[in-house]
Automatic annotation (TrEMBL):
NCBIfam families: PRK00230.1, pyrF. Residues 4-220 form the Orotidine 5'-phosphate decarboxylase domain. Substrate binds at residues 10, 32, 59-68, 115, 175, 184, 204-205. This is Orotidine 5'-phosphate decarboxylase. InterPro entries: Aldolase_TIM, OMPdecase, OMPdecase_AS, OMPdecase_bac, OMPdeCOase_dom, RibuloseP-bd_barrel. The active site is at K61 (proton donor). It comes from Sphingobium rhizovicinum. The gene is pyrF. Pathway: Pyrimidine metabolism; UMP biosynthesis via de novo pathway; UMP from orotate: step 2/2. Gene3D superfamilies: Aldolase class I. GO terms for molecular function: orotidine-5'-phosphate decarboxylase activity.
Amino acid sequence: MTSPIYVAIDTPDLAKAQSLAGQVKHHVGGLKLGLEFFCANGHHGVHEMMKFGLPIFLDLKLHDIPNTVAKAVQALHVLEPAVLTVHAAGGRAMLEDAKAAAGINTKVVAVTVLTSLDNSDLADIGVGGKAEDQVRRLADLAQSAGLDGIVCSGEEVAIAKAAWNDGYFVVPGVRPAGGALGDQKRAVTPRQALDRGASMLVIGRPITQAENPDMAAREIEATL
Ligand SMILES: O=C(O)c1cc(=O)[nH]c(=O)n1[C@@H]1O[C@H](COP(=O)(O)O)[C@@H](O)[C@H]1O
């Protein structure tokens, strides 16, 4: 079975990214490249990481007017990422145009509520109610706009999946039991996230900051 773990390669240093990917490639299902990596290394960096033969999740969290996002998605076609993120808060037209602009082999998934936010952070940006209410609302929007799935925390994934059974559910903010949270506020264990319906587990620092990243990835895999 292919591992549901995508390792978040969050570094601007291409050589370090290649070294990490080389160490963990047999115990993860894919590589997640985000803003930090892409801003530093661009298309060239992604092409280099594609050489590991694993699916690439390009996590750029696009969020702008529909025309700008659609053009950005078109500019990424050549990279053929397996998964690409946009922010659900960009609204229906932006989501529809992003999906229409993506290649057929790319899953476009909408970030709902960042896992670094709690209910009090949501209140600060004018979102009343609980994170799970906002996730449910944005998941409905993403589904009706024709997207492939959403990004949410393990605390909401069961609710979202109940309403969208064939959706693709990306769950970051995943921590082995007792692991350091860092800036994550809505975290669950890898096992909990899978049991609740995650399609993909995004795991960064618990693997990449470990003394032995390969061992860390194996240990997490063994809990699944
Ligand atoms: O879209 C994401 O992947 C994402 C969404 C979200 O709500 N929270 C979140 O942490 N992420 C990403 O998931 C990764 C989590 O990294 P760690 O906290 O180190 O495991 C980072 O690369 C984040 O950019």
